[in-house]
Design brief:
The structure holds two protein chains of two kinds.
Chain A (H helix, E strand, L loop, with lengths): L4 E3 L2 E5 L4 E6 L4 E9 L6 E6 L5 E4 L2 E5 L5 E6 L8 E9 L7 E2 L3 E6 L1
Parallel strand pairs in A: 2-11
Antiparallel strand pairs in A: 1-3, 3-8, 4-5, 4-9, 6-7, 7-8, 9-10, 9-11
Chain B lengths: L3 E4 L2 E4 L5 E7 L5 E7 L6 E7 L2 E4 L7 E4 L5 E6 L8 E8 L9 E3 L3 E5 L1
Parallel strand pairs in B: 2-11
Antiparallel strand pairs in B: 1-3, 3-8, 4-5, 4-9, 5-6, 7-8, 9-10, 9-11
The chains are: A mainly beta, B mainly beta.
């Protein structure tokens, strides 16, 4: 099925560093969701974005809905060891559907 | 409290032996989804229900079936599991109305092993 381009695929960073990841699509979306998935668990919703240009924060996490509606960014500030996991973006297309398109994931490892 | 509950968390079955995974939700959401996820890949949609309307993905094998007897429950039946069906199975829900619209909530998943 269709997937979003998510980058980077993986990141190794030092504790305390900031992290940025993004998703891009050739299609327009009306909602962007960002999830974190720990090993052996289901994805947990971090941030939901509904409007082009919207900037939303959740603690150390900040995400933005791109102006073109074809991309989204997630930033994590001052990373800590528990930020380790896989981050997925998911987009909801504007056309009448209940399906979501998932990014390929960014695997984050934080070195203490 | 968990809002999307999957049981069991871990399931071991034998090659060819039918298995059923269950999902329940306390959110009263219209839409329920089943995904298959392998090796830290993105979740792959198998099918979804809008209320009782069933929507199968074109590439979902016939080996996978689903039932939704009521709003709260949804089941994934694998009629004859093969080794390639070993994966994490994720249930999710979404609402199509109100401020929570378009947000998809996942259960903790069921890890299926096939021996």
């Amino acid at each position: 099925g269709q997937q979003l381009n998510q980058s980077p695929q993986s990141m190794f960073i030092q504790e305390g560093e900031d992290v940025s990841m993004n998703c891009t699509s050739s299609s327009i979306f009306n909602t962007w969701l960002w999830y974190k998935q720990d090993p052996g668990e289901g994805p947990v919703l971090l941030i939901a974005l509904y409007k082009a240009g919207e900037l939303t924060s959740n603690g150390r996490l900040t995400a933005q809905f791109g102006i073109t509606r074809k991309d989204s960014f997630l930033n994590i500030s001052a990373s800590i060891p528990s930020d380790v996991g896989i981050y997925f973006c998911a987009g909801h297309p504007t056309s009448g559907t209940y399906k979501y398109i998932f990014g390929t994931g960014t695997r984050l490892k934080v070195l203490a | 409290d968990a809002m999307v509950i999957q049981n069991p968390r871990y399931q071991v079955t034998q090659f060819g032996k039918p298995v059923t995974l269950s999902c329940s939700q306390t959110l009263n959401h219209n839409v329920m989804y089943w995904y298959q996820q392998k090796s830290s890949q993105a979740p792959k949609l198998l099918f979804h229900y809008y209320d009782k309307d069933f929507n199968n993905e074109a590439d979902t094998p016939d080996n996978f079936q689903s039932r939704r007897p009521n709003t709260s429950f949804c089941f994934l039946d694998i009629r004859s599991p093969g080794l390639g069906d070993a994966a994490m199975y994720l249930c999710a829900t979404s609402s199509k109305a109100g401020i929570a619209q378009n947000i998809q909530y996942f259960g903790a998943g069921t890890r299926l092993s096939v021996l």
